[in-house]
Specification:
Blueprint: H1 2-25, H2 35-41, E1 51-56, E2 63-68, E3 72-77, E4 99-100, E5 103-104, E6 114-118, E7 121-131, E8 136-141, E9 146-152, E10 161-165, E11 171-175, H3 193-196, E12 198-206, E13 213-222, E14 225-231, E15 239-245, H4 254-257, E16 263-270, H5 271-279, E17 284-296, E18 301-314, E19 322-328, E20 331-336, E21 342-347, E22 353-357, H6 358-366, E23 370-374, E24 377-380, H7 382-385, E25 386-390, E26 397-402, E27 407-412, E28 417-422, E29 428-433, E30 438-442, E31 455-460, E32 476-482, E33 489-496, E34 503-507, H8 509-512, E35 537-541, E36 544-552, E37 555-557, E38 560-565, E39 569-576, E40 585-589, E41 597-599, E42 604-609, E43 615-620, E44 633-639, E45 648-650
Parallel strand pairs: 13-18, 36-39, 38-44
Antiparallel strand pairs: 1-2, 1-34, 2-3, 4-5, 6-7, 7-8, 8-9, 9-17, 10-11, 11-12, 12-13, 14-15, 15-16, 16-19, 17-18, 20-21, 21-22, 22-25, 23-24, 26-27, 27-28, 28-29, 30-31, 31-32, 32-33, 35-36, 36-37, 38-45, 39-42, 40-41, 40-43, 43-44
The chain binds (dicuprio-$l^{3}-sulfanyl)-sulfanyl-copper and dinuclear copper ion.
Keywords: Copper, Metal-binding, Oxidoreductase, Signal
GO molecular function: copper ion binding; nitrous-oxide reductase activity
Signal peptide: 1-25
């Protein structure tokens, strides 16, 4: 009991420090008046930013792209949440993207954008992001800035430790935050936690050419709470390191009960070895139900397939597959420096930042330097793997990124600052306050073999007094910090959508050159496309009416449609005939219980509409596309059920009364 109350006090104390340091620090703000800082973030009108930053939208479920150094918001890319702004998740073509084994799930919580890598470097092809709540991983295509694929993860709950990329994007890896009974064994007492609740580390194979994802295997690991991971690089290429907390395996009041042990673990996994075992036919197929959703750029449509099983390896059965490294205390993540030799863990309740050596780890394994085992899995001796500790770094270390010049930058949640330290000597070089309560930070390329450096971006949890107040809910915020000198220098605060949980930042040139400007009409394979006005038509089959509509500046064809009856399901398939950059058309119908469509040039999108009453229903283009945009409109006539008004459609005819 005594121990519990001490821990509670410690945690309450940490919270208080966070708030106190946050409010006090608010007075500084020197950068806002610094002309030099203003010059460094000023991007003249018409000029482009130097970098793209892709930040998760946190509980918005989306990704947002910003220009750096200006901090200008360029685009919100819908991923796990419906987006009425462009019809994602509302149109018939994109609804299947949000299908899961639980049915249609129109929201999630995104945390960790991960750029695809070639030879350990960000290659600008794809961006992966996790859905935390209903475990999913999405892949975005950075040529189109569209979500192309969403894969649900079975046997997992709280897909937080995700997604992490191996050095050549061989795998995207995720693990469970909440250990749960495996899918085959569902109705289990929570009291059976220690026996029956398991972690499942998921290894998703990524096709080199198409980016297509498939679950290669899952490793059944002990029922802990898994936290962030990073794959090795260079010498440590074959390994991936996970952190875990709650090695106490508590299932109630985790705040206290999962903070008992002095050290939890880094779990080092030899993924190369796991891959070999699976190739040899080891492991077993376990029943699992999960959705695999794929968007096709040619049909402009998504399909959802339900998968039925997954290959699982129980790590207990394969010695040498994983090792534990003790790590203080409730570690929240592990980061691998550019050379792949040192890995750095951050215990959110720890007083030091431990830096481990990969070489020493291999040596310790070789010489069986074990301090014991957990469930048969060897636990290496802390000191045999440790290279050294960063002493007195600050309070609440969370995440570390690197600048490629031998320095590391660690975010400190509780003391609300970034600490710069030297990787080889572990001495602290500088610290800078963040406003407030920083979570992740992002150095461009900061988790890759060759960081671009130049900036570190603080991704904060709280803004308090930093912006004009907007009622109880305040904007979320990031901060841009110059790291070119010995001392870090705050340049800019900029608001973000949702919570900018984590971001990855990449030189613009790697993305810009591949950017798609429009979709070729002749490559449009959507079965409902009308590729010219001549093909525009309306077809009835029972109570289903398909409208094949075209859009071009500045009319929709057809624009007068009669003979729809109440009780019909109307599918309006709009094809944008434009073949030019930046000419989308929009589409909306009065009273439709749906969002608009925003149709890119060459694309087809479908709005489903069930008219709820008889009458005249105007429809129009919602995107201001030309001087005669206001004229881009038309009418539906909806008659009573069973009416004998013939189905007709027109364009360019002044109808006579019927
Ligand atoms: S975890 S703030 Cu959700 Cu990314 Cu450390
Ligand atoms: Cu098309 Cu406005």
């Amino acid at each position: 009991m005594k121990r519990i109350s001490q821990t509670t006090l410690l945690l309450a104390g940490l919270g208080a420090i966070a708030i106190a340091s946050g409010c006090k620090a608010g007075k500084t703000g020197q950068a806002a008046t610094d002309e030099d800082a203003a010059k460094k973030v000023y991007v003249a009108p018409g000029k482009h930013d130097e970098l793209y930053m892709f930040a998760s939208g946190g509980f918005s479920g989306q990704i947002a792209a910003y220009g750096i150094p200006s901090g200008r918001l360029l685009k919100v890319i819908p991923v796990f949440s419906q987006n009425p702004e462009n019809g994602y998740g509302y149109s018939e073509e994109t609804k299947p993207m949000l299908n899961t084994s639980h049915g249609f799930v129109p929201w999630d919580d995104t945390h960790h954008p991960e750029l695809s890598k070639t030879n350990g470097e960000d290659d600008g092809r794809w961006l992966f992001i996790n859905g935390n709540n209903t475990p999913r991983i999405a892949r975005l295509n950075l040529a189109t800035f569209k979500t192309e694929e969403i894969l649900e993860l079975p046997n997992v709950a709280g897909n937080h430790a995700s997604p992490f990329c191996t050095e050549n994007t061989e795998y995207i890896v995720g693990n469970t935050r909440f250990s749960v009974p495996l899918d085959g064994d569902k109705d289990v007492s929570i009291g059976d936690f220690k026996k029956k609740f398991k972690g499942a580390a998921t290894f998703i194979k990524v096709d080199k050419n198409t980016g297509r994802m498939n679950i290669a295997f899952q490793l059944i690991v002990p029922g802990f709470n898994y936290d962030l991971a990073h794959a090795g690089k260079g010498p440590s290429h074959d390994w991936i390191f996970f952190t875990c907390y709650n090695t106490e395996q508590a299932n109630t009041l985790l705040e206290v009960n999962a903070s008992q042990r002095d050290k939890d673990f880094i779990m080092a996994v030899n993924w190369k070895k796991a891959e070999e075992l699976v190739a040899q036919g080891k492991g077993h197929k376990a029943p699992a139900k999960y959705a695999h959703n794929l968007y096709n750029e040619r049909t402009h449509s998504a399909t959802s397939t339900m998968e039925n099983d997954v290959t699982m390896l129980d790590v207990k059965d394969y010695p040498g597959l994983i090792y534990y490294i003790p790590c203080p205390k409730s570690p929240h993540g592990v980061d691998v420096e550019p050379n792949g030799e040192y890995f750095v863990a951050s215990g959110k309740l720890a007083a030091v930042i431990p830096v481990f050596s990969f070489k020493k780890m291999l040596g310790a394994i070789d010489q069986k330097q074990f301090e014991g085992d957990f469930d048969g899995i060897p636990v290496l001796k802390y000191n045999t793997v440790l290279e050294g500790e960063v002493q007195k770094p600050g309070l609440g270390p969370l995440h570390t990124e690197f600048d490629g010049k031998g320095y590391a930058y660690t975010s400190m949640f509780v003391s609300s600052e970034i600490v710069k330290w030297k990787v080889d000597t572990r001495e602290i070089i500088d610290r800078i306050p963040t406003y407030y309560s920083i979570g992740h930070l992002s150095v461009p390329g900061g988790d890759s073999r060759h960081p671009y450096g130049k900036y570190v971006i603080a991704l904060n949890k709280i803004t308090k007094d930093r912006y004009l107040p907007t009622g109880p809910e305040l904007t979320q915020s990031a901060q841009l910090i110059d790291i070119t000198g010995n001392k870090m220098k705050l340049l800019l605060d900029f608001p973000t959508i949702g919570e900018p949980h984590y971001a990855q930042t990449i030189p613009a040139e790697k993305i810009e050159k591949n950017s798609v400007k429009f979709f070729k009409l002749e490559e449009n394979d959507n079965p409902y496309a009308a590729k010219s006005e001549k093909e525009a038509r309306v077809v009835r089959k029972g109570n289903r009416v398909d409208v094949y509509m075209t859009a071009i500046r500045s009319h929709l064809a057809p624009d007068n449609i009669e003979g729809i009856n109440q009780g019909d399901d109307v599918y309006v398939h709009v094809t944008n005939l434009e073949q030019d950059w930046d000419v989308p058309h929009g589409f909306a119908i009065k009273g439709s219980n749906n969002s608009e469509l925003l149709i890119m040039p060459g694309e087809t999108a479908t709005l489903k509409w069930a008219p709820d009453r008889t009458g005249i229903f105007p429809f129009y283009c919602t995107d201001f596309c030309s001087a005669l945009h206001q004229e881009m409109s038309g009418y539906f006539r909806v008659s009573p059920k069973g009416s004998n008004v013939p189905l007709t459609f027109h364009l360019g005819e002044n109808l006579a009364a019927r």
